[in-house]
Design brief:
8 strands; alpha/beta; eight-stranded mixed barrel; 8 helices; about 20% strand
Length: about 200
Protein backbone atom coordinates (compact mmCIF):
# COMPACT_ATOMS: atom_id res chain seq x y z
CA UNK A 1 0.00 0.00 0.00
CA UNK A 2 1.83 3.14 1.15
CA UNK A 3 5.40 3.49 0.00
CA UNK A 4 6.49 5.86 2.76
CA UNK A 5 5.31 6.35 6.30
CA UNK A 6 6.36 9.59 7.91
CA UNK A 7 6.03 11.45 11.17
CA UNK A 8 6.24 15.16 11.85
CA UNK A 9 8.43 16.20 14.76
CA UNK A 10 7.13 19.16 16.72
CA UNK A 11 10.45 20.11 18.25
CA UNK A 12 14.06 19.32 17.59
CA UNK A 13 17.46 20.74 16.73
CA UNK A 14 19.60 22.63 19.20
CA UNK A 15 18.69 22.87 22.85
CA UNK A 16 18.74 26.67 22.86
CA UNK A 17 15.67 28.52 21.48
CA UNK A 18 15.80 29.81 17.92
CA UNK A 19 15.71 33.59 17.73
CA UNK A 20 15.38 34.04 13.97
CA UNK A 21 11.68 34.70 13.32
CA UNK A 22 12.01 33.32 9.80
CA UNK A 23 12.71 29.93 11.35
CA UNK A 24 9.51 29.92 13.38
CA UNK A 25 6.54 27.98 11.99
CA UNK A 26 3.50 29.96 10.92
CA UNK A 27 1.40 27.95 13.35
CA UNK A 28 1.90 25.34 16.03
CA UNK A 29 2.82 21.99 14.52
CA UNK A 30 0.89 18.96 15.73
CA UNK A 31 2.69 15.59 15.48
CA UNK A 32 1.11 13.63 12.64
CA UNK A 33 1.53 10.52 10.49
CA UNK A 34 1.62 10.83 6.70
CA UNK A 35 1.52 8.02 4.13
CA UNK A 36 2.58 8.27 0.49
CA UNK A 37 0.56 6.07 -1.90
CA UNK A 38 1.02 5.36 -5.63
CA UNK A 39 -2.63 5.36 -6.72
CA UNK A 40 -6.24 6.10 -5.76
CA UNK A 41 -7.05 2.54 -4.75
CA UNK A 42 -4.28 2.53 -2.16
CA UNK A 43 -5.33 5.98 -1.02
CA UNK A 44 -8.87 4.86 -0.23
CA UNK A 45 -7.56 1.98 1.87
CA UNK A 46 -5.11 4.21 3.75
CA UNK A 47 -7.70 6.93 4.38
CA UNK A 48 -9.90 4.38 6.09
CA UNK A 49 -7.08 3.34 8.42
CA UNK A 50 -7.09 4.89 11.94
CA UNK A 51 -4.00 6.73 13.18
CA UNK A 52 -3.15 8.29 9.81
CA UNK A 53 -3.48 12.06 9.46
CA UNK A 54 -2.36 12.86 5.92
CA UNK A 55 -2.24 10.98 2.62
CA UNK A 56 -0.01 11.98 -0.30
CA UNK A 57 -1.00 10.75 -3.78
CA UNK A 58 1.94 10.30 -6.14
CA UNK A 59 2.33 12.20 -9.41
CA UNK A 60 1.25 9.31 -11.60
CA UNK A 61 -2.37 10.33 -11.02
CA UNK A 62 -2.09 13.91 -12.32
CA UNK A 63 -4.27 13.15 -15.35
CA UNK A 64 -7.26 12.45 -13.11
CA UNK A 65 -8.10 15.73 -11.31
CA UNK A 66 -11.79 14.83 -11.09
CA UNK A 67 -10.95 11.70 -9.11
CA UNK A 68 -8.64 13.77 -6.92
CA UNK A 69 -11.62 15.94 -6.04
CA UNK A 70 -13.69 12.90 -5.04
CA UNK A 71 -10.79 11.50 -3.04
CA UNK A 72 -10.27 14.82 -1.24
CA UNK A 73 -13.92 14.89 -0.23
CA UNK A 74 -13.66 11.32 1.07
CA UNK A 75 -10.48 12.13 3.00
CA UNK A 76 -12.08 15.17 4.62
CA UNK A 77 -15.13 13.10 5.60
CA UNK A 78 -12.72 10.80 7.46
CA UNK A 79 -10.92 13.70 9.14
CA UNK A 80 -7.81 13.28 6.95
CA UNK A 81 -5.86 15.64 4.69
CA UNK A 82 -5.00 14.85 1.07
CA UNK A 83 -1.94 16.16 -0.77
CA UNK A 84 -0.65 15.65 -4.32
CA UNK A 85 3.05 15.10 -5.08
CA UNK A 86 4.50 16.57 -8.26
CA UNK A 87 6.96 14.67 -10.55
CA UNK A 88 10.65 14.19 -9.61
CA UNK A 89 11.65 15.87 -12.91
CA UNK A 90 9.47 18.61 -14.36
CA UNK A 91 9.71 18.27 -18.14
CA UNK A 92 7.93 20.72 -20.41
CA UNK A 93 5.08 18.31 -21.16
CA UNK A 94 4.46 17.67 -17.45
CA UNK A 95 4.48 21.43 -16.81
CA UNK A 96 1.95 21.95 -19.60
CA UNK A 97 -0.33 19.25 -18.15
CA UNK A 98 -0.17 20.85 -14.72
CA UNK A 99 -0.96 24.28 -16.12
CA UNK A 100 -3.88 22.85 -18.12
CA UNK A 101 -5.47 21.34 -15.02
CA UNK A 102 -4.45 24.13 -12.64
CA UNK A 103 -8.01 25.24 -11.89
CA UNK A 104 -9.13 21.67 -11.28
CA UNK A 105 -6.18 20.99 -8.97
CA UNK A 106 -6.52 24.19 -6.94
CA UNK A 107 -10.30 23.79 -6.79
CA UNK A 108 -10.30 20.08 -6.04
CA UNK A 109 -10.16 20.48 -2.28
CA UNK A 110 -6.55 19.32 -2.02
CA UNK A 111 -4.81 20.37 1.19
CA UNK A 112 -1.52 21.00 -0.55
CA UNK A 113 1.03 20.20 -3.25
CA UNK A 114 4.30 18.41 -2.47
CA UNK A 115 7.11 20.10 -4.42
CA UNK A 116 10.23 18.15 -5.28
CA UNK A 117 12.31 20.62 -7.32
CA UNK A 118 12.97 24.34 -7.64
CA UNK A 119 11.39 24.22 -11.12
CA UNK A 120 8.10 23.17 -9.55
CA UNK A 121 8.37 25.95 -7.00
CA UNK A 122 8.85 28.44 -9.85
CA UNK A 123 5.86 27.04 -11.72
CA UNK A 124 3.48 27.01 -8.74
CA UNK A 125 4.58 30.23 -7.06
CA UNK A 126 5.36 32.15 -10.23
CA UNK A 127 1.90 31.49 -11.60
CA UNK A 128 0.29 32.37 -8.29
CA UNK A 129 -1.33 29.03 -7.50
CA UNK A 130 -3.55 29.52 -4.47
CA UNK A 131 -2.70 26.31 -2.62
CA UNK A 132 -0.40 25.40 0.31
CA UNK A 133 2.89 23.69 -0.51
CA UNK A 134 5.11 21.12 1.17
CA UNK A 135 8.79 20.61 0.30
CA UNK A 136 9.80 16.99 -0.24
CA UNK A 137 13.11 15.52 0.96
CA UNK A 138 14.66 16.08 -2.49
CA UNK A 139 14.19 19.85 -2.14
CA UNK A 140 17.35 21.45 -0.73
CA UNK A 141 16.76 22.19 2.97
CA UNK A 142 20.05 20.90 4.33
CA UNK A 143 20.88 23.84 6.61
CA UNK A 144 19.39 26.77 8.51
CA UNK A 145 20.35 29.29 5.84
CA UNK A 146 18.34 27.37 3.26
CA UNK A 147 15.37 27.15 5.62
CA UNK A 148 15.42 30.88 6.33
CA UNK A 149 15.55 31.65 2.60
CA UNK A 150 12.71 29.26 1.74
CA UNK A 151 10.44 30.43 4.54
CA UNK A 152 10.87 34.01 3.37
CA UNK A 153 10.36 33.03 -0.27
CA UNK A 154 7.20 30.96 0.27
CA UNK A 155 5.77 32.91 3.21
CA UNK A 156 2.59 31.57 4.75
CA UNK A 157 2.07 29.28 1.75
CA UNK A 158 4.73 26.87 3.07
CA UNK A 159 3.13 24.26 5.34
CA UNK A 160 6.26 22.29 6.28
CA UNK A 161 9.47 20.80 4.90
CA UNK A 162 10.79 17.24 4.78
CA UNK A 163 14.08 16.34 6.42
CA UNK A 164 16.79 15.33 3.90
CA UNK A 165 17.44 11.59 3.82
CA UNK A 166 21.22 12.10 3.64
CA UNK A 167 21.69 13.93 6.96
CA UNK A 168 22.79 12.11 10.11
CA UNK A 169 21.64 12.86 13.65
CA UNK A 170 24.27 15.53 14.30
CA UNK A 171 23.55 17.27 11.01
CA UNK A 172 19.80 17.16 11.61
CA UNK A 173 20.37 18.68 15.04
CA UNK A 174 22.37 21.53 13.51
CA UNK A 175 19.73 22.05 10.81
CA UNK A 176 16.78 21.98 13.20
CA UNK A 177 13.75 19.71 12.83
CA UNK A 178 11.00 22.07 13.87
CA UNK A 179 8.04 22.14 11.49
CA UNK A 180 9.61 19.39 9.40
CA UNK A 181 8.65 15.87 8.44
CA UNK A 182 10.83 12.80 8.95
CA UNK A 183 10.66 9.85 6.55
CA UNK A 184 10.79 6.74 8.74
CA UNK A 185 9.88 3.96 6.30
CA UNK A 186 9.94 3.35 2.57
CA UNK A 187 12.14 2.97 -0.48
CA UNK A 188 14.24 5.78 -1.97
CA UNK A 189 15.43 5.69 -5.61
CA UNK A 190 19.16 5.29 -6.16
CA UNK A 191 19.11 7.95 -8.88
CA UNK A 192 16.63 10.22 -10.65
CA UNK A 193 17.61 11.54 -14.08
CA UNK A 194 15.89 13.50 -16.82
CA UNK A 195 17.69 11.43 -19.46
CA UNK A 196 17.26 7.78 -20.35
CA UNK A 197 20.27 5.82 -19.07
CA UNK A 198 19.49 2.86 -21.35
CA UNK A 199 19.46 4.96 -24.52
CA UNK A 200 22.55 7.03 -23.72
CA UNK A 201 24.80 4.33 -22.26
CA UNK A 202 27.56 2.98 -24.46
CA UNK A 203 27.49 -0.80 -24.85
Amino acid sequence: TGRNRRTVKQTGGRAEPETDTAMEPAAAVVPAVTVLVPDFRSAVWVIEEPGIDRVIVDEGQQDKPEQLMELAEFAHSQGKKLLFRLPPVLRSREAEKLCDCRKLLTGSGLDGLVLRTADEAGLVCGAGWDIPVVLDHSFYTWNRQALVFLRKAFGSRLSYTTLPLELNQRELSERGCRSSELVVYGYAPLMVTAGCVGKTAEV
